[in-house]
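Q: Sequence in, structure out?
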Amino acid sequence: MSANGDTLEHLSTWLRTESPTHAPAGVNRMMDLVAAEVADAPVAVERIAGRAGLGDVLVLRAGPQTSEPAVLVMSHLDTVHPLGTADHHLPVRLEGDRLYGPGCYDMKGGAYLALEAFKTVARSGGARRPLVYLMTPDEEIGSPTTRAMIEDLARNAAFALVTEPARDGGKVVTGRKGVGRFEVHVEGRPAHSGSRHADGRSAIREAARQILAIEAMTDYGRGVTTTVGMISGGTAANVIPQHCRFAVDLRVVNAADGERHGAEILGLKAHDPDVKLTVTGGMNRPPYEKSAGVAKLYERARSLAEELGFELGEVPLTGGGSDGNFTAALGVPTLDGLGIDGDGAHTLHEYGLVSSIEPRRKLMVRLLETL
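A: Exactly. Output:
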């Protein structure tokens, strides 16, 4: 089954409307497009001005306005691709069943199909609960300005549905690792590397020892990984480096490991007493564990998909974080990976499968009607 021409035209417009996180004008143009899509539907639109140099937030509301806990749908409209990607390195195009373009898979395709489902149910009046759809501008950088809003909405929600992309051929996600981010600053003592070498205290040398210790915390058996993915330091080849900075990424399966390894990283001590070590950061996404409520919600979705004529598998744990981590950590049954199927997130071969749009839109409709 393929999407109709209007869907492809509208979604292609979304893809050409580039919206990297730190380009708020582009993100806000995406918010404009969403608001325009619901202008003729019985949907209340609340637009909240962006903060900290980031784009705006949209909250869409529909369904019965009762005191019942809501069904919360969440999408992000920011992407990782820099401006100009659609003009040069990843042009928007249809090749067979593949629709290519920046953010098609992660996650404009999912946001679009869920918005169409949201409008369908709003117009039919078929929802049992209030429906709330949150569109955010900053998920790709850890949701720094929207986490509190997500958690506030989650506290009044019965279920959370997240339109991150499908995995492994159309599977939904029922668990994610928690994510920690840390910054380490090492300050040594500069000196001329030829004439005064002994006077210097190398920040890079100290950082190298710390990095090896941090990387050694990785424990695949427990699902713990530690990665130093960025490093900078030094001023010239002939100077003992005074400064070195590096970033640490921590992924954990459960909250206890997050606390333990987070404390271990924050508690790092310099080996050289003449070197100063400063560590900041912490867990920025709690683990999303597959609770009994999550399992029951997945079974509901699997049954609905079967009624619609397709099989819905699950990925019980993935390493990447999402805004679903926040809702699941508050005990809200959360189902993730409800977006478009495809591949290549964050790459220059990113695409969504057109044939997945309509079945997954119908599944979202049924979830919004029956939860």
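The chain has a mean pLDDT of 97.
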